[in-house]
Amino acid sequence: MTKQTNWKASYDVVVLGFGGAGATAARFAADNGAKVLLADIAPYGHEGGNTRYSAQLIGTGYDRKALKKYYEGLTRPMNLPEDMVNIYVDGMVNTPEYVKKYLDAEPVSFMKDFDMPYEAKAAACQEYPNLDGHKTYDYTMVHNGWFDAALWKILRQKVLDRKDKIDVWYDARALHLVQNPENKVIKGVQIIKDGQKINVLAKKGVILTTGGFENNKEMVQNYLGASKLTPLGTLYNKGDGIKMAEEVGAKMWHMWNYEALGFLHGLSFDTPEGERSQLFLEWPQLNHGSIFMIVADGKRYFDETEHDRHGHISDHDIWRVPKPYEKPYIVFDKAQYEDIHKGKIPYDEFDEKLIEADSIEELAKKINVDIDGLKEQVKIFNKAAENGKDIQFNRDPKSLRAFSDGPFYAIKMAYNVLNTQGGPEKDVKAEILDTNEQPIPHLYGAGELGGICANQYQGGGNLAECLIFGKIAGEQAASVDDEVSEAASDQYNDINELVDGNKIDDIKLAENQTLGSSDAGIGGKLVVRVTHANGKIQNVEIVQNHESEDIGKKALEEIPRRIVKANSTDVDAISGASATSRAIKEAVKNALKN
Ligand SMILES: Cc1cc2nc3c(=O)[nH]c(=O)nc-3n(C[C@H](O)[C@H](O)[C@H](O)COP(=O)(O)OP(=O)(O)OC[C@H]3O[C@@H](n4cnc5c(N)ncnc54)[C@H](O)[C@@H]3O)c2cc1C
User: Fold this and answer.
1) Phi then psi for 108, rounded to 5 degrees?
2) pLDDT of 459 above 70
3) What is each CA distance from 446 to 212, 245, 306, 430, 472, in whole angstroms?
4) Strand segments (E) across 399-477
């Protein structure tokens, strides 16, 4: 006889993970009559996963035939079930309509409307111009802007609008699915909330939308072959969805596949473990001139100037993220140091992190890389600069300048991870499959957890997937009719921790103080209290915000100081936290108007 589970709450559908896929799945399950629980491991204000940090670009195609051809080209030489490709391509052709109909936003075309030179837009948007069909590809935006959480805020609002049908739990980590051992039906889930183990019955189904394993070092080592990757997005995606799916016999796919972003094919400056890295899309002084990138043997391992595609560079004609090695350093000479310092340095800790030495040998010793290797590398590089030909990696001759005098410099780098694609395989109904390719009853999935991308990634594909498969998963789970019927208490039902982030708390004001707010950040309303006297800004306090915990936090501390010092909102943003910086400046402007 199977042991009876002590259910402490009961819902029709339980969605695990409140990112783009989870928000979408919960909303469509609710719209199809289900009472839904949406649980997220993050605390309030920090839900949203990678979706919140993303560039907010949704993959779109105008000509279905061309888009299918393009997608097949991206996938090749790997295989994907054709019905999955069809449903995905249909969904992407429908993106503008979806944005209008379900997100109540006017779709904006990146290629037509975004303010950027056409060539740059084409390079950022149609990433594989060598493939047939690329010209039909575009990004849809929900307004004319990127990296500002605009799409995420709409998806979140759609959940809030259905407050009567969707309960949201924060600080709620799902760890195990509860499965009937005989018929394999998923009956519910065990969630750790406030230190309590809560078994939640899911009468119709569970939808796994817990994102990837960017922050699970062991999985990163096992599946991606990297000792450590530094996340650009959320810190809360720890691969729990993979463990849960494995426990109930799911088949995994695309585990090796991941994306990066940033200059030098997905690198950032070395970042302590457990922190997000700062994204730099471009920094020409760091790949043009007497400068190159090395690893432990003192040798270069790629063309620093090559245009990458979400971190992928050409590897004998297949585009892959270069293998992460040990001790990645950028190395340069005095002339390059001076060039770098002539321009604006968008990384506050650049000088602090520089390692300086009078000779190449001393530099190699200081950074603990192979001394002879680095000396030889400098010689080879200098010869390449002299001859105008880089026989190692064919770097653009115009970007080569021989190393001359010391001092010489090095700065430690880190390998970024944007998102992982691996996880449980699903079918066209978003049903998660077992190792015999049969649907596991009552278990669905969407988003980057088991994403569709089998090989070369085209930007916009992940968010498209959240919208397309999130909708399918929500609708399918809500329409299950062989419900699990087991006795359950309602002790934990009707707790809803999702509050309206747009409400301004009751904030006290003295006579010389005014409040101002802005929606330009990535976490809902940001509110400041400004103290002024004799036409001068005396103090700026952030009294409400849900920005990111690290780089965003730096902006929260630093921008108010800069505004007070300059007595103006015309101050530099914190690099890597441009949305938060913009929101603070806008809120102060509004407070001054008031
Ligand atoms: C900087 C950056 C830019 C990007 N730009 C784009 C872009 O423009 N276009 C595009 O298509 N893609 C982009 N991507 C990729 C894309 O953002 C993600 O693949 C996508 O948002 C994933 O959505 P998701 O809902 O599957 O996962 P997420 O949005 O990551 O959400 C997963 C949620 O699950 C929660 N969770 C994790 N574990 C548990 C657990 N055990 N219990 C409960 N909750 C849990 C997390 O807290 C999180 O809220 C970008 C990514 C980054 C980092």
Assistant:
1) -115, 130
2) yes
3) 11, 13, 33, 7, 9
4) 408-417, 419-420, 423-424, 431-433, 439-445
pTM listed for this prediction? 0.93
| Mean pLDDT across 540-545 | 90
Average pLDDT of the chain to the nearest whole number: 95
DSSP string, 362-407: HHHHHHTS-HHHHHHHHHHHHHHHHHT--TTT---GGGB----SS-
Q: In three state form, how does the secondary structure of 153-220 look?
A: HHHHHHHHCCCCCEEEECCEEEEEEEECCCCCCEEEEEEEECCEEEEEEEEEEEEECCCCCCCCHHHH
What do you get for the CA distance between the two ends of the chain, in Å? Answer: 69
- φ, ψ dihedrals at 421, nearest 5°: -110, -15
Tens digit of each residue's pLDDT (9 = 90 or more) over 521-533: 887 788 999 998 8
Q: Residue 111 and residue 124: Cα distance in Å, rounded?
A: 10
Q: Which tokens hold the place of 195?
A: 């230190």
Greater model confidence, 243 or 574: 243
Pocket perturbation via mutation, ligand 1, pick of 54, 214, 426 by most ligand atoms within 8 A of CB: 54
Q: Is 234 in the pocket of ligand 1 (CB under 6 A)?
A: yes
How close is the Cα of 6 to the center of ligand 1, in Å?
A: 32
20 lines ligand 1 (CB under 6 A): yes
Closest residue by CA, ligand 1 atom 33:
17
Provide the CA 443 distance to its chain's centre, in angstroms. 25
b/e for 516-540, b at 16 or more Cβ within 10 A? bbbbbbbbbbbbbbbbbeeeebeeb
Rounded Cα gap, residues 405 and 379, in angstroms:
13
Report the Cα 122 to chain-centroid distance in Å. Answer: 22
What domains are defined for the chain? 7-257+419-478 (3.50.50.60), 269-417 (3.90.700.10), 513-593 (3.90.1010.20)
The average pLDDT across 278-303 equals: 95
Average pLDDT over residues 24-44: 97
Give per-residue pLDDT as tens, 157-189.
Answer: 999 999 999 999 999 999 999 999 999 999 999
Q: What pLDDT score does 501 carry?
A: 65
Length of the chain: 594
